[in-house]
Design a protein that fits this description.
This protein has 1090 residues and is mostly helical. 61% of the residues lie in helices and 0% in strands. A two-stranded antiparallel sheet has the order 1-2.
Length: 1090
């Protein structure tokens, strides 16, 4: 038995041999092998150029012949090394690699003398290589690494461009051959199916050899074009063509090869063997191009390539003759490429606006118009050539998916709306739904594959395809509004819930798609912003399942995780395992959803709670972890402190939406519950009250109490921190167990400065007060207003602001051309109106408004009565313009569900003068801008179509919020992407800001400037204002997206440092770009039925 000594016991001579001689031998071996490969390539090149070689393409190739077999073995040896060399040649000097590459390219470029009579029929070395490596794997491996790719592409450009020319020529020749064969109605020799067979082949005909070389050339060119240096080799000049072949020409050729592919049997289409058909090869190449941004831009995003892709669609739409083999599979392939193009931002832009927006011709429609028209024809079964096809539903689904990639974006939806695609898909779904109802339910214990026929499965699959297509409309605000009009909202939500349940199961076993999770988060956030979708989420079981999963994380932990050691105590206020559920709950509980789910719902407040009792809805969550007003609730929690902090943090975010705060406060007295808990959380003292115990819960409660009882912008209130400081006084903020709040939380409001009148302000006041007969009076006012806002914005406040907007609105409303709404006369009768009882929400809102107004020194005594007078008259005034609606939605069963923050803002601007406020609001209600600034203005309004009213969706959402998302993507793409990654929507937070007139987010002076800017400059400035806010917050948004708490940041944090005047020029630049589009859509809200 041999024994190997350790290294340290070897003689010194042996060690020297191992260290010096062996490496030299291995190095010499590598050099010898490199030389051998070069010699082999040179030997083959010499042989092919010698007179003894005389093989011709037309004669075919008999591989059983000993001489040919000998050549093939040499070429195979060279090819095997070609494939293996890239894994090791970086270890050796670059000159060896360059010599091998050059010798190989020299061999493959071998041609007969062009003057030789048989030069075109010469069977060159590249045919042998293509026979052995048909998909050019060698070239793929050589170009994979930058180390070798640079050398290859340099040599191709400098010395061996003929190799590329020959490959392009071969593709052109094959295409011409296909066209000629197709025009003769004969089938092209389908080598691809023959080649897939396992039968050994000994003889290849000339046409088969040409096809093999064509496949090799196609794969080589497909790989070459991936790289920028490879694309720079174009255009190429061919001998038999007058014009150069550009990169675009080549891509058009590739696309046309899809159409002229040989047709196959149905069995061949479903086979999973290697397929060498032109269509499948081109599809592989184009799919790779779509995934490479730079490559897609250079190769695919051109009008010529788009025209080539859309050619069969154009022919079918125009009813012209279609010269296409296997029409259904061609259409499916085209749809696949179009969908991949639409999935990229640049590709979507090409489909919507063409390859060059500036040079787009009005006569030639862009791709989107052709695609949507074709899809509608498909859905209406209006294409005769496809009638009766077994693949018709697959073709329909493929093109619906292309459209879905477009309409799930705001800009794409804008282009598709005129075609009413949602209606066509909705009608198709209704038909499919009727058919699916007839599908029998599988019998218990029966084999599902045998109990349900294939046709029945296809019907169910088709219905799900259509539901998925409709569901994706809800990715945008306007799309969600269109989805409601189809009547499929509930079915779509149920389908989404079932799909999410399946994905959850897949996630458990490790099969999940993170991109889909972002998309689902966006859709749920959009849905939660509308009452109809919120009710559908509840009825589908989604909320129940979500609450159960949340409870398991909070109280039970994961059942499928084996506990090998005790769970660590959470360091963060909300444990990381619960963070995702916390954010989802925030997305879900917008005010429209909260009102539908909680309005007039009592807290259970049971005498006992079981540990096994799992909450089933939102009211149970509030009962179990927020309003902990009994020992039974506290003792029912396994993790009392962690769960209650979760509840308090949730309450803190919810109360940032002031309407939600009013609802929770009036129904559940949350302030009193928290004050009581603070009162009980004190130390025992022999005399007098004890000291507050500072712990995580008392700190959270203190923060929530200050937030929900104090209105004000970033410089108008002081919120206590929720963290302890280091030092002797870890929590310097005073706690309290009764109102009023300690004065330290009230920021000092600066006294009003006495502004010296200047000429610009005097001129504006003069123009506003005396319009005279000037035709451009309003435009002059706007210019003067912008001047003052840019130079002395602080003067636009107080009595000056009140007078400006009062006179401006008065004169606008007197001109019928400026009046968008026709409003009947209304006379306020104080005595009669006072008999009406205000709701508890309105009463609390009045208290908060008056308290805020007094803090700002804007209101005096008896202001509550004046504001009560304004709100009750507004309610009566607007009721005259409301229509009767029968709906199960709670928000449509009476007056406006929330508080009128805009009327309250105007009341403060008018310094508490009820008469002036009411007069202003009546005149203001004539103008278009009132529809978007004054949210209750259009509640169940007769000015809106009945379908819009019944949806419960406000125009601010499906119009303003829609354009906010659209402009945000165009102007601030990083911010838009941050929202998408966070599973949150800009529309949700903007609707919250707009509904409460930015109260608690801006200081009063900025709120005044926001209102004045929208009144003077137009309703579209509401959209520009929100975009400006996002621009101001861009860095913070990106930071909090990374921290995974974007929703919390945007809802809780005020807009620190934001001033309207700083962004006025930016807003003016947005106006120049977008005003025509925005105002057109805003004026169409009265006829918004598509």
């Amino acid at each position: 038995m041999s024994h190997v000594l350790p290294e340290r016991h070897l003689p010194s001579t042996v060690k020297l041999y191992k260290k010096s001689v062996l490496p030299l031998l291995s190095w010499s071996w590598a050099v010898c092998f490199f030389l051998f490969v070069c010699f082999l390539a040179q030997h083959l090149e010499f042989y092919f150029l010698s007179g003894e070689y005389s093989l011709r393409i037309s004669s075919g190739l008999d591989v059983s012949n000993a001489d040919i077999n000998h050549i093939l073995k040499k070429v195979r040896l060279l090819n095997e090394y070609q494939k293996e060399a890239p894994s090791s040649w970086i270890r050796y000097p670059e000159k060896y690699m360059e010599e091998i590459v050059e010798s190989t390219l020299s061999l493959l470029s071998v041609k007969h003398d062009p003057n030789h009579p048989a030069s075109s029929d010469f069977l060159s070395p590249i045919y042998f290589l293509a026979l052995l490596d048909i998909k050019a794997i060698w070239f793929k491996k050589w170009t994979h690494a930058h180390y070798s790719r640079t050398v290859i592409l340099r040599l191709l450009e400098k010395k061996y461009k003929s190799l590329i020319n020959a490959a392009v020529q071969q593709c052109l020749d094959y295409f011409e051959f296909c066209k000629a064969a197709f025009s003769k109605t004969s089938r092209v020799n389908d080598f691809s199916q023959q080649h897939s067979n396992n039968e050994q082949k000994f003889f290849y005909t000339g046409s088969e050899l040409q096809y093999i070389y064509f496949v090799h050339s196609l794969c080589l060119l497909g790989r070459l074009l991936i790289y920028k240096q490879g694309r720079n080799l174009f255009p190429v000049q061919l001998k038999n063509k007058k014009d150069c072949v550009s990169l675009t020409d080549l891509l058009v050729l590739f696309t046309q090869l899809i159409y002229y592919s040989p047709s196959y049997s149905k069995e061949a289409l479903t086979a999973h063997t290697d397929n060498y058909s032109p269509a499948s090869l081109v599809m592989e190449i184009l799919q790779v191009f779509c995934d490479q941004t730079g490559c897609a831009t250079d190769c695919l995003y051109t009008d010529a390539v788009m025209d080539a892709l859309l050619k069969p669609l154009q022919s079918l739409l125009n009813g012209t003759e279609v010269f296409i083999n296997c029409l259904e599979t061609t259409l499916i392939d085209v749809a696949d490429i179009l969908a991949r193009i639409a999935a990229a931002e640049d590709g979507l832009s090409v489909l919507l606006y063409g390859g060059n927006k500036n040079s787009a011709k009005e006569n030639s429609p862009t791709a989107v118009h052709i695609i949507v028209q074709f899809t509608k024809k498909l859905l209406h079964d209006d294409i005769s050539l496809l009638s009766g096809s077994e693949l018709l539903q697959v073709v329909k689904g493929a093109f619906i998916f292309v459209c879905r990639q477009m309409y799930r974006t705001c800009e794409g939806l804008q282009m598709l709306i005129p075609y009413g695609l949602h209606e066509s898909i909705g009608e198709a779904w209704k038909k499919a739904s009727l058919l699916s109802e007839r599908v029998p339910t599988p019998a218990t214990g029966a084999d599902s594959t045998s109990s349900i026929s294939l046709d029945s499965k296809n019907i169910v699959l088709w219905e799900e395809t259509l539901l998925d297509a409709l569901l994706n409309f809800s990715a945008t605000p306007k799309g969600l509004f269109l989805l409601h009009s189809t009547g499929a909202m509930s079915d779509c939500v149920s389908f989404m819930f079932n799909s999410l349940s399946k994905k959850h199961q897949a996630r458990v076993i490790g099969q999940t798609n993170e991109h889909e999770e972002f998309d689902n988060g966006v859709i749920i956030a959009q849905m939660a912003t509308t009452p109809t979708a919120a009710v559908a989420l509840q009825s589908s079981g989604f909320i129940k399942a979500f609450v159960a999963e949340l409870w398991a994380l909070l109280e039970c932990g994961k059942d499928d995780v084996r506990i090998t050691q005790p769970k660590s105590t959470p360091v963060d206020p909300i444990d990381q395992s619960c963070q995702k559920s916390f954010l989802c709950l925030i997305n879900l509980l917008t005010y429209p959803a909260v009102f539908e789910l909680l309005s007039k719902q009592d807290i259970p407040n049971k005498p006992t709670y079981s540990h096994r009792e799992v909450p089933t809805d939102i009211i149970n969550i509030i009962d179990r972890i927020i309003i902990l007003n009994s020992e039974a609730k506290i003792h029912s929690l396994f993790n009392y402190e962690q769960s209650h902090i979760f509840g308090l943090r949730l309450l803190n975010v919810l109360c940032c939406e002031l309407n939600t705060l009013l609802l929770l406060e009036t129904q559940y007295k949350v302030s009193q519950v928290l004050l009581t808990a603070q009162e009980e959380n004190v130390t025992e003292a022999s005399e007098g009250p004890g000291d507050f115990i500072v712990d995580s819960l008392s700190v959270e409660r203190n923060h929530v109490l200050v937030r929900i009882n104090l209105i004000g912008g970033p410089q108008e209130r002081i919120l206590p921190l929720r963290a302890l400081d280091k030092g002797s006084d870890p929590y310097p903020w005073p706690m309290f167990s009764s109102f009023p709040l300690p004065n330290c939380y009230l920021a000092e409001v600066p006294r009003k400065a006495d502004f010296r009148q200047d000429k610009v302000l005097d001129k504006l006041i003069s123009i506003v007060q005396n319009p005279g007969g000037q035709s451009e009076w309003a435009e002059i006012c706007r210019r003067q207003f912008c001047k003052i806002m840019k130079t002395r914005p602080d003067t636009i406040s107080g009595a000056i602001l009140a007078e400006l907007i009062e006179k401006f609105v008065l004169h606008l409303s007197e001109n019928r051309s400026n009046c968008y709404f026709s409003v009947g006369r209304y006379e306020a009768i104080d005595a009669d109106v006072k008999k009406e009882n205000l709701s508890s929400v309105q009463q609390l809102g009045i208290e908060m408004t008056v308290r805020y107004g007094k803090h700002l020194n804007l209101l005096k005594e008896h202001a509550e009565n004046e504001l009560c007078f304004v709100l009750m008259n507004c309610e009566q005034f607007l009721k005259q313009q409301q229509r009767a609606v029968v709906s199960s939605l709670r928000c449509l069963q009476g007056c406006y569900a929330g508080y009128d923050w805009f009327a309250s803002s105007v009341f403060l601007i008018m310094s508490g003068d009820g008469e002036k406020t009411l007069t202003f609001l009546q005149q203001f209600s004539h103008l278009l801008v009132s529809a978007f600034l004054w949210i209750p203005r259009l509640h169940m309004s007769m000015h809106l179509p009945i379908t819009t009213v019944e949806s419960g969706i406000h125009p601010v959402y499906f119009c303003c919020a829609h354009y906010i998302e659209m402009l945000l993507k165009a102007e601030l793409p990083l911010v838009f992407s941050a929202f998408h990654v966070s599973g949150f929507t800009p529309s949700q937070i903007c609707l919250q800001w707009i509904t409460q007139c930015f109260w608690n987010y801006m200081d009063w002076s900025e709120i005044c400037h926001y209102i004045a800017t929208c009144i003077f400059l137009g309703p579209d400035y509401q959209v520009y204002m929100c975009i400006s806010v996002f621009r101001h917050l861009q860095q913070d948004i990106l930071k909090h997206t990374e921290a995974q708490d974007l929703q919390v940041f945007l809802k809780e944090e005020a807009l620190h440092g934001f001033r309207v005047t700083d962004y006025l020029e930016y807003m003016e630049s947005l106006e120049l770009l977008y005003r025509p589009m925005l105002l057109k859509d805003m004026r169409n809200i009265r006829v918004q039925n598509t």
